[in-house]
Write a structure and sequence with these properties.
The protein contains 15 helices and 10 strands. The protein has 360 residues and is α/β, with parallel strands linked by helices. This is Arabinose 5-phosphate isomerase.
């Protein structure tokens, strides 16, 4: 017999499938008095406890083991696979992705169950298999090690329990000192996973240093993120040019250039001479100030008379992030920069809006 009412509609919770919270009877309470409240002092005490346990890890970590592990990754002749079960599996997945993002080490996450059902075919002789486990007693990992060894892989375990079976069968073990979990029962992996992540990320940072990874190399593997964009994009990649430039001659009357000032979407005019050398800039702010001070006299003024003849500029080969920094620098921020060459010829304009739209 079906125990579910066929007419009942599941109660959807964002990020939690279709189940209501335990003990809710399928309903949510809108009364804040019915909700459990987090005590600030208790929370602070937990953070202090976590800090204490993390310090225990730092104070007792065997740096010799850590160095041997890091060196094994640096010297790896093949690919480096990470594996783990449960929350340790999430850490293993994250560390493999971080290592792969460096660009000079082939690294991937190998789910232990999938590995035992065919995915171990990705492992070749001279590869390294790193297995992360708090207890070192997960059957999935214990079953995976001999299979990986049969394929010629070198196995390394990262564990926190002394004399565990996983460490006993691996070629290398790194012990991560764990005093206890801060969960009320000392069971949920809320401290051990933090230790695993800190250890792994620190080793990755050491590898970046010893291999002399440059910002440019790192950026090549992060083209879509802000990191990559700030290290890859140059001014020439984002600037407006040619027909999109709001150009004006210094002898042009201000009133005759209002269309050019507003139609190009830059909020300014680039004032140039007959050969296109930059003379200065005239902004919509300059227009407002001129109108306020000169009133009807504005009809007799030229752009050259009221323009800023010492504007901030930048070159096309400069990094786009440098353009943003220059726009935001004291004494006051600006919304654009004329792009000029070494002869002060105007070749483009880069705007704050364009930089923001590009994700910078």
């Amino acid at each position: 017999m079906d125990c579910l009412d066929s007419n009942a509609k599941p109660l959807l919770i964002s990020g939690m499938g279709s189940l209501a919270p335990p003990g809710s009877g399928g309903h949510f309470s809108s009364n804040k008095d019915d909700a459990a409240m987090i005590d600030r002092h208790t929370l602070g005490a937990l953070f202090e406890s976590q800090k204490h346990h993390l310090n225990h890890f730092f104070d007792n970590l065997d740096l010799g083991q850590a160095q041997a592990f890091a060196q094994a990754l640096v010297d790896a002749p093949g690919a480096i696979f990470f594996s783990g079960v449960g929350k340790s599996g999430f850490v293993a997945n994250k560390l493999s992705q971080t290592l792969a993002s460096l660009g000079f080490i082939r690294s991937a996450y190998l789910p232990p169950i999938d590995a035992l059902h065919g995915d171990i075919g990705a492992i070749f002789p001279a590869d390294i298999l790193v297995l992360i486990s708090k207890s070192g007693s997960s059957d999935e990992l214990l079953n995976l090690v001999p299979c990986a060894r049969a394929k010629g892989a070198y196995s390394i375990s990262i564990t926190s329990v002394d004399r565990n079976p996983l460490a006993a069968i691996c070629d290398m073990n790194v012990h991560l000192p764990l005093e206890r979990e801060i969960c009320p029962f000392g069971l949920a992996p809320v401290t051990s996973t933090s230790i695993q992540m800190v250890f792994g990320d620190t080793v990755v940072a050491a590898i970046m240093r010893v291999r002399g990874l440059t910002k440019e190399q790192y950026a090549r593997n992060h083209p879509a993120g802000k990191i990559g964009k700030s290290l890859i994009f140059k001014v020439k990649d984002l600037m407006k040019k040619e027909g999109d430039l709001p150009l004006s001659k210094e002898g042009d009357m201000i009133v005759d250039q209002l269309s050019e000032l507003t139609s190009k979407g830059c909020g300014c005019l680039l004032v140039v001479d007959a050969e296109n050398h930059l003379i200065g800039t005239f902004t919509d702010g300059d227009l407002r100030r001129t109108l306020k001070s000169s009133r009807e006299g504005i009809f007799k003024l030229t752009v050259g008379e009221m323009c800023n003849r010492n504007p901030r500029t930048i070159t096309a080969e400069a990094m786009a992030v440098e353009a943003m920094q220059r726009m935001e620098s004291p004494p006051s921020a600006v919304q654009f920069l004329p792009v000029i060459d070494n002869q002060r010829l105007v070749i483009g304009i880069i705007t704050l809006h364009g930089l923001v739209s590009a994700g910078l």
